[in-house]
Design a protein that fits this description.
heterodimer, A: 319 residues, mainly alpha, MetI-like fold, 2 domains, 15 helices, B: 671 residues, alpha/beta, Rossmann fold, eight-stranded mixed beta sheet, 24 helices, 32% helix, globular
């Protein structure tokens, strides 16, 4: 089991290093470099350009710069932004904390709700609760986020005036200042997420309820709810781990559309801003962070599935 | 209703409402009563409603089904009127079910001990603290090894036979007065099946339990049941003592069913029962069996027969129980298998020193460690198959028989050794590198036609693929050829635009046969081709394969776990254990003395549909996961093991007449 975990961690690290190479190579292949991009190539003052390149060490060979960048990233130093005014790690750190905050509340609302609704719709399949919630879920899934976000802003901030429609708090502010501004983005995000996870849980519950072992439990005289909680749900909820994990990665990686619509200072909006500012070092850093988040969360999900699923667990334990 | 009647089902009809609002009956007016301590067998083809009837005894109906009329009583309690709480008290308690596939009927996330203890918690008066001891006791009672360690195991860590025993233990936990068994040994190896049946017999007589035993396997029924009821199209057509029903069946359907079973005592092919049972949605005016019955007359087609008692005591739903003797008993049309002598034709396929291993070191292991590899799954196979011969490969699950077929088909590459086609030269191991000619010459028919026929293609498209690929046929020529093929497998041109889902199991398998023969192959690989079929259909497919062979001189390699089927169709048989050859020779030689000890064990466990027949159980039904590293593959289970030599040395080949070879350390004269 331990060697298994170590092996997976090693493979995860290998993935991240390969991704970092690709990101770095991608930026290198672009015409010009970070400085020409930033300084709008044609009008660039040659002196300014040279100074910029000196600041960012762009005159050194690519492999040296990659090694420096990668080693720096390992210690948490992501270099300086292209205008040389701030350390990227500081910029990203505050933004990432915000993304984390948004994701945390969205998950807090979304995951339990999705599980609950998934189980309800699965158990009452084709009857009223199922029809109602499944229809709502389809709407929540199919309407693009920016449409539902705009609609909610219209209803809750413009018409009813209950919640602020836009986030004005700046990136580094304490958590308490994000309330109640964060509520609308959380609602939109959990709506989409709940719909996805709920439908997955629903089909999984239906499948398990039709299984031989659930029928056997019934014919063994196990009372209905005991059968549901002991025999059906542990099996039905196993596949949910991976779906929830992907959702978490999606949330942490910056939900660009939502952050832009609500002016939320998260990782996604930072990426968009960096791109429009042509701040290549920042783009590079965010890409690396998002990739690492996906790898870490997938790894955690796989390990959790392994622990929760006796078939996988025993496979590695008794080897 | 007599005082002793324990389970009493009266005039029960079960059905569902179709999308068009029609009421479709799956069970029609069924009456069955079981006395205390009595065991009744319920037989019939798939779809005859036998499982539905057994579950109805528990007051349970599958999703969509409901009782339309009739009564189900258990010890005087009306099961159909009970509330959920009262049903729960009886289910798994006084009336317990042993399900068909225990591997799927045990909850995968719960430990064995917990699942058995759950039954105790629900149905026994014991204290929580006594549960563990009682569970161990129950597991010991069903003869599971090391019950104390099994408690903490999960279902997937047990073999099929062990899972079935756990299901039995779980049923016994409630100290039932009656057991319902729904195909409890289907899918198990012969030796395992025989052991489980003996266990059930002993338990039933020890505890004086009533049993309702549902099975399509008449051999199993004959071993455990006092009385037998035969079901056809949702009705009981024959009821009587096991002896009466199995030895002198008085209903044409039961008669046909019994003659379609291949037996070890018979050398010819069994007699096929043509046609298929009516679907529940079809309207039946007369006798449901009339269309398939050789005795049917005008009256049979217009008036439904009632269940009448005969003087000898059986109840029969037939107008002509006295004319059963007129039905054919053995297969008159094909009395012998296409005869192949040694000089007939050349060599079709040679397996030279074949060894196959599934274990592939992962990239990680190749790079960073050198863990020792397990012994090869299949090893040291040398067989020369002659043109026009049918070679049967038998053995229990895990014996490597399907693996060998896959290697011949090119789906896996052998670790060492090679294949020689037509005595000419080596056959390329990988299917994607083989020439079109070689591809065409070797065709495969799979176990389950549901999986091997593309459900989105119609039969015309399915047959067109090989015809286009190998013969570049198009247009009218293609169509003519397809029709010809369908006719050869006794299906008509009107099947061309149907899809597999519109065909019955037997029809689908015929299409699979037609597809294989479309390529005009020299060698056809048959992988358990009849295991998923009902016996009556199985007989028809065997007959068809044999006929095609007689016409075209095709060579078959026929893999099956069913020794009687292999005996019926093969010229030569190879017995495999753990991927190693134990015995090979002409069919008569292998199925008679001298035996390899493993062949002896296998044959002893086969159940004949004859109540006078006793299986002989000489080895434990242990499931071995991998072959031993040295010595004889059968060393760990062999009832005649000599000693250390069996563990260390590969057994020598003992040669007898006609190429009969037994790989064993026991000298020729003692085998």
């Amino acid at each position: 089991m331990l060697t298994m975990i170590l092996r997976r961690i090693f493979l995860g690290l290998a993935t991240i290093s390969i991704v970092s190479l690709i990101i770095f190579a991608g930026v290198e292949i672009l015409p010009g470099d970070a400085c020409t991009q930033y300084l709008e190539q044609d009008q660039a003052d040659v002196e300014l350009l040279e100074k910029c390149r000196d600041d960012l060490n762009l005159n050194r060979p690519a492999h040296e710069r990659y090694t420096e960048w990668a080693l720096g990233a390992l210690t948490g130093d992501l270099g300086m932004s292209v205008n040389g005014e701030a350390k990227i790690s500081d910029l990203v750190g505050a933004r990432f904390a915000n993304s984390l905050l948004l994701a945390f509340f969205a998950l807090l609302v979304g995951v339990p709700l999705a599980m609950l609704l998934g189980v309800i719709t699965g158990l009452w399949r084709d009857r009223k609760p199922d029809i109602i919630f499944s229809t709502i879920a389809i709407f929540a899934m199919t309407i693009p986020e920016f449409v539902s976000a705009t609609l909610l802003i219209l209803v809750f901030s413009v018409w009813l005036g209950w919640l602020p429609g836009i986030v004005l708090t700046s990136a580094g502010s304490p958590i308490s200042e994000f309330f109640p501004e964060i509520l609308l983005p959380v609602i939109v995000l959990s709506l989409v997420m709940t719909a996805h996870v709920m439908r997955m849980v629903r089909s999984s519950v239906i499948e398990v309820m039709a299984s031989d072992y659930v029928q056997m439990a019934t014919l063994k005289g196990v009372p209905y709810w005991q059968m549901v909680f002991r025999h059906a749900l542990p099996n039905a909820l196993l596949p949910a781990i991976n779906v929830v994990a992907l959702t978490i990665a999606w949330l942490l990686g910056g939900v660009v559309v939502i952050e832009v619509v609500f002016n939320y200072p998260g990782l996604g909006r930072m990426m968009i801003d960096a791109i429009s500012d042509r701040d290549l070092p920042v783009v590079q850093a965010i890409a690396l962070i998002v990739a690492s988040i996906y790898v870490c969360i997938n790894l955690t999900a796989d390990l959790m599935t392994m622990i929760a699923n006796p078939k996988l667990r025993t496979m590695y334990l008794r080897k | 209703m007599s005082a002793a009647t324990f389970i009493n089902i009266q005039n029960l009809s079960v059905g569902y409402t179709s999308q068009s609002g029609e009421i479709i009956r799956v069970l029609r007016n069924v009456s069955l009563s079981i006395n205390r301590g009595e065991s009744i067998g319920l037989v019939g083809e798939s779809g005859s409603g036998k499982s539905t009837l057994a579950l109805a005894a528990l007051g349970f109906f599958k999703r969509g089904l409901r009782a339309l009329e009739g009564d189900v009583e258990f010890d005087g309690i009306d099961m159909l009127a009970l509330e959920r709480d009262d049903l729960q008290a009886i289910r798994g308690g006084r009336l317990a079910l042993i399900p068909q596939n225990s591997g799927q009927s045990l909850t995968p996330t719960l430990r064995i001990g917990l699942q058995v203890a759950e039954a105790l918690r629900l149905h026994s008066q014991l204290n929580e603290s006594d549960f563990e001891a009682r569970v161990v006791e129950l597991l010991t009672q069903v003869r599971l090894p090391e019950p104390a360690t099994l408690l903490s195991r999960f279902p997937h860590e047990l073999s099929g036979g062990q899972q079935q025993r756990v299901a039995v233990a779980m049923a016994l936990a409630g100290e039932p007065d009656a057991l319902l068994l729904d195909e409890p040994t289907t899918g198990l190896d012969v030796t395992t099946q025989a052991h489980i049946l003996e266990l059930l017999r002993d338990l039933a007589s020890e505890r004086n339990m009533a049993m309702l035993y549902v099975s399509h396997d008449l051999g199993a029924i004959s071993r455990v049941c006092d009385r037998v009821a035969v079901m056809y199209a949702g009705e009981i057509v024959l009821k009587g003592s096991t002896k009466q029903v199995l030895l002198s069946p008085r209903h044409p359907y039961a008669h046909g069913l019994l003659s379609s079973i291949p037996r070890l005592t018979q050398t010819s092919l069994p007699l096929a029962l043509d046609g298929r049972p009516p679907m529940p949605s079809e309207t039946i005016t007369g006798c449901a069996f009339a269309d398939r019955c050789a005795l049917a007359d005008e009256r049979c087609r217009s008036t439904p027969p009632t269940l009448k008692q005969l003087e000898s005591g059986e109840k029969v739903r037939c107008f002509h129980p006295d004319r059963i003797d007129q039905l054919p008993v053995v297969n008159k049309t094909v009395t012998q298998k296409g005869n192949v002598s040694a000089d007939h034709g050349g060599d079709a396929l040679g397996l030279n020193q074949l060894a196959i291993s599934y274990a592939k070191p992962s990239l990680w292991n190749q790079l960073f460690s050198n863990a020792s590899m397990p012994p090869a799954t299949v090893d040291n196979i040398n067989i020369l198959i002659r043109t026009g011969e049918t070679l049967g490969l038998v053995g229990e699950s895990g014996s490597g028989k399907s693996t060998i077929l896959k290697a011949i088909a090119g789906l896996i590459s052998p670790k060492t050794g090679h294949l020689v086609l037509n005595g000419e030269g080596r056959l390329t191991p990988k299917v994607e590198n083989r020439s079109a000619l070689h591809l065409r010459q070797i065709q495969m028919i799979f176990q389950n036609p549901d999986d091997s026929l593309n459900p989105r293609h119609n039969i015309a498209q399915i047959l067109a693929q090989p015809l286009r690929l190998y013969f570049s046929l198009t247009g009218e020529e293609l169509r003519q050829r397809s029709i010809e093929l369908l006719e050869r497998v006794r299906l008509g041109s009107h099947y061309l635009d149907r899809r597999p889902s519109q065909l019955s199991g037997g029809e689908k398998q015929r299409v699979a046969v037609a597809r294989a023969f479309a390529a005009e192959p020299a060698i056809v690989l048959c992988d358990e081709v009849t295991s998923a079929l009902d016996v009556s259909v199985q007989a028809a497919v065997l007959d068809l394969l044999n006929e095609l062979k007689a016409q075209r001189g095709t060579t078959y390699i026929f893999v099956s776990h069913d020794l009687a089927v292999v005996k019926a169709i093969s010229n030569r048989v190879a017995v495999l254990y753990q991927g190693r050859l134990c015995e090979i020779g002409p069919v008569e030689a292998v199925y008679s003395k001298p035996f390899h000890p493993y062949t002896d064990v296998l044959l002893g466990a086969v159940l004949e549909p004859d109540p006078n027949f006793m299986p002989k159980l000489s080895a434990d039904d242990v499931v071995e996961l991998s072959p031993p590293k040295t010595g004889c593959p059968f060393q760990r289970r062999c009832p005649r093991k000599l000693g250390k030599i069996c563990d260390t040395d590969v057994p020598p080949g003992r040669i007898f007449d006609n190429g009969h070879q037994i790989n064993c350390h026991i000298p020729e004269t003692d085998l």
